[in-house]
Amino acid sequence: MISRRSLLRAGAGSAALAVPLLSPGTARAADLDPATIAKYAVPMPRIPVQRPSRVVDGTAYYAVDMREAEAQILPGARTRVLTYGGAFPGRTFLAARGRRTVVSRLNSLHMPTSVHLHGAHVPPEHDGGPMDLIAPGARRSYTYDNEQTHANLWFHDHAHHHESEHVYRGLSAFYLLTDRTERSLPLPSGEFDVPILLRDARFDTDNQLVYAMDDFLNRNTILVNGRPWPYFRVAARKYRFRILNSTNLRFFTLKLSDGGSFTQIGSDGGLLAEPFETTELRLSAGERADIVVDFARYPVGHSVELINDNGPGPAEHVGKVMRFDVTRTAADDSSVPARLRTLPALPAPTVERTVDLRMDEDGRPHPRAYIDEKLYDHDRVDTEIRYGATELWTVRNVNRLAPHNFHMHLVQFRVMERNGRPVTGGPEGGLKDTVTLLAGETVKLQATFTGHRGTYVYHCHMLDHSAMGMMATMKIV
Ligand code: C2O
Ligand code: CU
After folding, report:
1. Which of 52, 168, 191, 414 would bridge 60 by S-S if both were Cys, CB 3.0 to 4.6 A apart?
2. Which ligand is nearest to the CA of 159?
3. How far is CA 34 from each of CA 198, 203, 214, 220, rounded to the nearest angstrom?
4. Which residues lie near ion ligand 2 (Cβ < 5 Å)?
5. Cβ distance 320 to 267 under 8 Å?
6. Distance from Cα 461 to the centre of ligand 2, integer Å
7. What secondary structure letter does DSSP report for 401?
């Protein structure tokens, strides 16, 4: 039985059976106690960049398969994972606005997959939606025209009912789209611009990942760029960190262990209009943020931790993320300008809608999750939208305990209001594609539906919740 308190903190339903995807029929080893994994004992790797197989007339062609592989996650151990191209996490794609990216994907898994580019403005046939599957052994090409402004996008699996396990087992990767606006700024760059992919995991004593649906109480090992609680050696100067919460269910509240401040410069859809000085960064599952941390205030030899001031789970484990060790000085001609970008104008909305998110939270054995009291049905169009329309959506989490978040495909939206208060600037003032909704919260979101017609989904990005039904279809006509 799950205590009310843990339900309150993690907000999900009951435990379900483990699904032994990778080793069917074998009895599972006991859980590995996260206390046996040393903290700050391994370096944080920099995620390698994915190289194109060729570039023709500005179009970059890639070939990346989905396949099982072994990764070194825990020190001295091999863990079976699902990968993009054998890498855990997947290699980072670099893209530039106005230059096309084409990715040929061979599915070498035994399960259907779908590769979604989260946050991308693409036609439906290249969106990687939940029903648009690549069968085992099949190949397909996704084309990304990169017409939108700069943003930290990410690839993840979206195969309906498998996405939760597939993402958990490793199918995620950064896709960093840049443009002239971003490149013109004197922000920290090169080796001082570091993507950080955060996630949690549950291991057994054979060092293998344990997957169970809605398993929010047991994923108590924190992985950063694929390693547990690593350290990262930095120079005493400014760094830009592009952070992705790639977990299925966990919400992070990130802080420096000395309470020191840092500057948030970006969110899901790229840079904020103005930098935001803060001591904490909240990221729900699927959200991204760019921050600049200035280590110049620390002497060489000093260390500061990145901590997570949020549950569920034991704080001595899930409360720790990584450690920065200041090991040298370095020149720094970077800076954070007072104005970062001009956000698109906000046309007056002509359509208003409400969307209610709710899941069963009465402790029943197989809880389900709903949008507007309906389970996801891929044959049903829930919302029809006129091409070109600007709409204002009031999204409510009507649960008493469970947190959710809300993600729309195709568009970057704006958060206009949170709980009745206008949002002007701050961490939610920029372009967003995923927004937090704690129990009882309401947000008003505005989006303009141009560029592409067709059907796309919107859903809770706690992937176990969307797999439990909290997903719906919109059709732009
Ligand atoms: Cu990142 Cu429909 O998902
Ligand atoms: Cu949810």
Report:
1. 52
2. 1
3. 16, 8, 19, 7
4. 404, 460, 462, 465
5. no
6. 7
7. S
* The Cα angle at residue 62 between residues 96 and 88, in degrees rounded to 5: 95
Q: Which CATH architecture has domain 190-328?
A: Sandwich (2.60)
What is the per-residue pLDDT across 110-149, written as a single tens digit (0 to 9) for each? 999 999 999 999 999 999 999 999 999 999 999 999 999 9
The model's pLDDT over 255-269, given as tens digits with 9 standing for 90+, comes to 999 999 999 999 999
Please tell me the distance between residue 163's alpha carbon and the centre of ligand 1 in angstroms.
9
Atom of ligand 1 nearest to the CA of 409: 2
In this structure, what token pair is assigned to residue 7? 């339900």
Question: Which residue's CA is minimally distant from atom 3 of ligand 1?
Answer: 118
How far apart (Å, rounded) are the C-alpha atoms in residues 314 and 319? 7
Farthest CA pair distance, the chain: 60
> How far, in Å, CA of 320 to CA of 229, rounded?
7
Give the atom of ligand 1 at the shortest distance from the alpha carbon of 457: 2
Distance of CA 280 to the CA centre of its chain: 18
In the reported structure, the alpha carbon of residue 301 is separated from the centroid of ligand 1 by a whole-number distance in angstroms of 41
> Residue 453 class from Cβ within 10 Å (0-12 exposed, 13-18 middle, 19+ buried)?
middle
Residue 28's pLDDT is: 78
Q: Which ligand is nearest to the CA of 13?
A: 2
DSSP class of residue 9? H
**Cα–Cα dist 155/167, whole Å:** 10
Tracing tokens 């580019």 back to the chain, one arrives at 117
Domain map (residue ranges) of the chain = 190-328
Residue 44 and residue 224 in contact, taking contact as beta carbons nearer than 8 Å: yes
Ligand 2 center from residue 371 Cα (angstroms)? 10
Q: Name the amino acid, one letter, at 114.
A: S
CA dist 344 and 275 (Å) reads 17
Residues with Cβ within 6 A of ligand 1? 116, 118, 156, 158, 286, 407, 409, 457, 459, 461
The closest ligand to the CA of 246 turns out to be: 1
Q: Are 292 and 340 in contact (CB under 8 A)?
A: no
Ligand 1 center–CA 312 separation, angstroms: 23
- Can you give the pTM of this predicted structure? 0.94
**405 CA → ligand 2 middle, Å:** 6
Beta strands 252-256 and 303-308 are antiparallel
Structure tokens, 60: 């970059």
pLDDT tens per residue, range 202-235 = 999 999 999 999 999 999 999 999 999 999 999 9
Q: How far apart are CA 219 and CA 212, in angstroms?
A: 10
